[in-house]
Design a protein that fits this description.
The complex is a heterodimer of chains A (353) and B (489).
Chain A: H1 13-19, H2 24-45, H3 53-78, H4 86-101, H5 108-132, H6 137-155, H7 165-172, E1 174-175, E2 178-179, H8 180-198, H9 200-210, H10 212-217, H11 223-248, H12 255-258, H13 261-271, H14 283-302, H15 307-329, H16 345-348
Antiparallel strand pairs in A: 1-2
Helix pairs in contact in A: 2-14, 3-8, 3-11, 3-13, 3-14, 4-5, 4-6, 4-11, 5-6, 5-11, 7-11, 8-9, 9-11, 13-14, 13-15
Chain B: E1 2-8, E2 11-17, E3 26-30, H1 37-44, E4 52-57, E5 60-62, H2 67-72, E6 75-78, H3 90-94, E7 101-102, E8 105-106, H4 108-121, H5 138-151, E9 156-160, H6 168-183, E10 187-191, H7 195-201, E11 204-209, E12 212-218, H8 224-231, E13 252-260, E14 267-272, E15 276-281, H9 287-294, E16 302-307, E17 310-312, H10 317-322, E18 325-328, H11 332-336, H12 343-354, H13 359-372, H14 389-401, E19 407-411, H15 419-434, E20 438-442, H16 446-452, E21 455-460, E22 463-469, H17 474-482
Parallel strand pairs in B: 3-10, 3-11, 6-9, 9-10, 15-20, 15-21, 18-19, 19-20
Antiparallel strand pairs in B: 1-2, 1-4, 4-5, 7-8, 11-12, 13-14, 13-16, 16-17, 21-22
Helix pairs in contact in B: 12-13, 12-14, 14-15
Classes of the chains: A mainly alpha (353), B alpha/beta (489).
């Protein structure tokens, strides 16, 4: 009965072959579906209902914070950078907003605005260092993360500030089974999708991440998409910090680091089919990546698995997913001899967006 | 453009070339590898800026600091290596940086409709503008690049070797597109090695040689043999050392029979100890691919290979090295050396990873080896990136010679290095031959191939087009490489 936790994301060899003709987004949603079906089965075998309001609420709550950060991380990775400073932005915004609110309803709006501005400023610095000083995002945001973590450690011991009741309702309110906070996350995800698909900034983000030289040759300014992606990512991390404040009621200087949001968000983005090198991917896939992690966590919670084993399962899922995508990415010199597709074949194999 | 000159790092690669393009005209630009065609194109495209000379568009002098400025002036260029983003669609690539908008949003519908109209205007109906560029064939990518040029309202479109990677029916399609463009009054600059095409397509032809303009004539006054004569016509230098006395051609070191893979086919080749065999051919004719196939980078899938008389299957560079092969690649900075490692580590690199047991012995040989190659360096600890190109190439040679190879494959061994270093490398080749090593050299420099080789293999379209004796004339080699003349046998 206690079926070994088969990695839900592990496709067989034949699936890998099929995978060549499917888009990454389709694959990741199929994996999500599989995870839900298997998860629901396992949950049912424990005499519980995966689709109960309480359990779905748990899944959605797990998706919210990671989802917000991963949406921002998607933009940063698409443009060819990385953001390792997100957990510290989350913590900083939680203590900043908590301190400013100090339990008073009237101070909610200014506290939120200041927190968002702080997030934007951090993102601006990250973006400028990456684009103007040509420091790779990995290093630039590692440095920023260290600076913020040093600031947090020396200025805040234990919880700080307090969220007023009105602000905490943000976390407590539900529409059907869906928490308000999850809806906020999904709204930002939709805006990011709109940005990527329907604005010049979005198109240029892909272009710069794909090949900055080609973008420059086409007259695209290559710094502004990088800066914009970092600013948006840090602001979304700040929003995540605000939602955590609403959930916990107090600001926590270590809440971001505890969530490992830096590596988990990168993992979710990559699991969602976005190329770590940039230029290819989308937010739709990222949301599925986040959902897969949430479902896995939930099911493993139901199974009362050893927490170390949980990380093993997560690790396997990420590696298998990237291995599947990598097989599709191998670009070779087109053969002169041997099998050549008939003319026009390439055009026929049109890929749905 | 008038009297344009360009130097790189004190190397004058182009002097005093002029080019006139009138509306609706196709101007052919021909010359050997390294004659300055690409430099001329890049100046016109705004990639490089000329040191001397002027560019005029519609009678007024212009200068381009950036490719975008050339595009705005109506000059678009379709380069050999394509400038499309593989993960973006045809429409997104064409309108990159100029996406049509409605309000704050990109009007994707309009963008795709305009792209479709653009392609239809070129007579292409089977390409869906929503297709990602990576899914396109080379010919289709080229069509997209041309469509992009048209969308920029280009009045001059430069095409660099547009047919190099095309099949025959695709070439016909390109001809149709060019006819459509010239009918609209667009001027075309057409760079090609395929002289037949140039004569068929162009109204006038400009010949470049060694960076200078040799002649410009109406195509009607030219034929292929005249073109070849104009392209070559250079005295043969006595720059190449003679074979060392006592060099004897001995037993067979490397033999290929009917060998092929995805890139080369039907290769029959015998290489004996003490021989230097040159491989000539145009860019894209499969020369590098042949060396890579022999060396196991893209292993041969057909035919047989024997090394030192024994049949071998070379499936990886490691097996090739074990079998006594060495490959000096054409791009020393990317695949020849680890630039941020020391000279000593670079020279030891291959031995250390393939025959670790010999590392200590090899380490003792390296100072002498580098000394005999006259590598100018402060110490073995100096990083390879701080050496000149010539000295880097000598370190690459040392890295391979220390493995004691039986067969040395050289790909463009003297590319981008100074005359002195070139001479040193030629002498190393002669010494190797005298020691009984077999040398197979690919080079784009015809005088080098002719001056150094005992035999010359000419490649065309991935196959051996024929074998010529060493010392053959450049005309003969070029005629065989371009397909003007078929092999005598």
């Amino acid at each position: 009965m206690s079926a070994a936790p088969k990695p839900e994301g592990g496709p067989s060899m034949s699936e890998m072959r099929v995978a060549r003709s499917l888009s990454s987004t389709t694959i990741v949603y199929l994996v999500l579906l599989l995870a839900v079906v298997v998860g629901a089965g396992i949950t049912a075998s424990r005499g519980r209902n995966f689709f109960s309001i309480g359990n779905l609420d748990n899944v959605f709550t797990m998706m919210t914070i990671l989802g917000l950060i991963a949406v921002g991380q998607t933009l940063v990775i698409l443009v060819g950078s990385l953001d390792l400073s997100v957990p510290f932005v989350v913590s900083l915004s939680s203590v900043t907003a908590g301190g400013l609110m100090a339990g008073q309803t009237g101070r909610i709006v200014p506290a939120v605005l200041v927190t968002l501005l702080v997030g934007a400023a951090i993102g601006l610095v990250n973006g400028l260092v990456v684009s103007r000083l040509a420091v790779h995002g990995f290093i630039a945001t590692l440095g920023m993360g260290l600076i913020l973590s040093g600031y947090l450690a020396s200025n805040y011991q234990g919880s700080h500030g307090e969220a007023p009741r009105a602000f905490r309702l943000l976390d407590a309110t539900r529409i059907g089974p869906v928490p308000m906070a999850t809806l906020i996350m999904l709204t930002f995800a939709m805006l990011a999708i709109l940005l990527l698909r329907r604005t010049r900034l979005g198109h240029h983000l892909y272009a710069v991440g794909g090949n900055a030289d080609i973008a420059r040759m086409s007259g695209v300014r290559t710094t502004s998409p990088v800066v914009a992606a970092h600013v948006i990512c840090s602001m979304l991390s700040a929003v995540a910090g605000l939602l955590l404040l609403a959930r916990l009621g107090v600001g926590q200087p270590t809440v971001g680091a505890q969530g490992s949001y830096d590596l988990m968000s990168i993992a979710a983005v990559v699991l969602g089919g976005t190329l770590l090198g940039g230029g290819k991917g989308n937010v739709v896939g990222t949301i599925a990546g986040v959902a897969i992690f949430a479902v896995l966590d939930n099911v493993m919670g139901v199974m009362e698995l050893n927490p170390f084993l949980k990380d093993v399962v997560r690790g396997v899922v990420i590696i298998v997913a990237v291995a599947v995508y990598a097989r599709r990415e191998i670009d070779r010199r087109p053969p002169r001899f041997g099998a050549e597709p008939p003319p026009g074949q390439a055009a026929i194999e049109e890929e749905a967006r | 453009m008038r009297q344009v000159a360009k130097s790189f790092l004190g190397n004058r690669v182009l002097h005093g070339a002029s080019l006139d393009v009138r509306p609706g005209e196709v101007v052919g630009l021909v010359g050997e590898n390294g004659a300055g065609k690409s430099t001329l194109m890049k100046i016109l495209a705004g990639v490089h800026q000329p040191d001397e000379g002027t560019i005029e568009v519609d009678g007024s002098t212009v200068s381009f600091a950036h490719p975008v400025e050339a595009q705005r002036a109506g000059i678009a260029t379709v380069f050999q290596e394509f400038n499309l983003l593989p993960e973006r669609t045809i429409a997104e690539n064409i309108y990159l940086g100029r996406e049509p908008r409605r309000g704050p949003f990109v009007d994707v519908g309009a963008m795709e409709r305009q792209a479709r109209e653009l392609l239809e205007g070129l007579g292409i109906t089977r390409l869906d503008p929503r297709t990602r560029a990576r899914r396109l064939s080379v010919a289709e990518q080229q069509i997209v690049e041309i469509a992009k040029a048209v969308s920029l309202d280009a009045r001059v479109i430069q095409m660099d070797e547009p047919t190099a990677a095309l099949a025959d029916h695709e070439v016909a399609l390109l001809y149709d597109i060019i006819a459509t463009l010239t009918a609209r009054g667009v001027g075309i600059v057409y760079v090609s090695h395929r002289l037949r095409e140039v004569l068929d397509l162009c109204t006038t032809v400009t010949v470049l040689k060694d960076g200078a303009q040799v002649d410009t004539r109406p195509a009607s006054e030219l034929d292929e043999s005249t073109l070849v004569r104009l392209m070559v016509g250079r005295p043969m230098s006595s720059f190449f050392p003679d074979p060392e006395p006592g060099t004897v051609v001995g037993e067979v070191r490397l033999q290929l029979a009917g060998a092929g893979n995805d890139h080369v086919d039907g290769i029959d080749l015998t290489l004996r100890a003490g021989e230097i065999v040159g491989i000539a051919g145009l860019q894209g004719s499969g020369r590098t691919e042949l060396l890579e196939a022999v060396f196991g980078i893209e292993p041969l899938t057909r035919g047989t290979v024997s090394i030192g008389g024994r049949p071998q299957r070379i499936g990886s560079p490691r097996q090739a090295i074990r079998a006594g092969l060495a490959l000096v690649t054409e791009d020393r900075k990317a695949t020849g050396l680890a630039l941020n490692q020391s000279i000593g580590d670079n020279a030891l690199g291959v031995v250390r990873s393939v025959t670790p047991g010999r590392t200590t012995a090899a380490r003792d040989e390296i100072p002498e080896l580098l000394g005999s190659l006259a590598v100018a360096a402060r110490s073995l600890a100096q990083e390879a990136q701080f050496l000149s190109g010539g000295n880097q190439q000598k370190v690459v040679l040392a890295r391979w010679l220390v493995t004691r190879p039986q067969v040395v494959l050289l790909d463009e061994p003297t590319r981008g290095i100074d005359v002195g270093a070139k001479h040193a490398i030629y002498e190393v080749m002669r010494t190797l031959a005298a020691e009984g090593v077999a040398v197979l050299m690919v080079s784009s420099e015809l005088p080098e191939v002719i001056g150094m080789s005992d035999r010359i293999l000419v490649m065309r379209d991935g196959r051996l087009a024929g074998t010529l004796p060493g010392g053959s004339s450049e005309e003969t080699v070029l005629a065989l490489a371009t397909g003007v003349r078929e092999a005598a046998s």
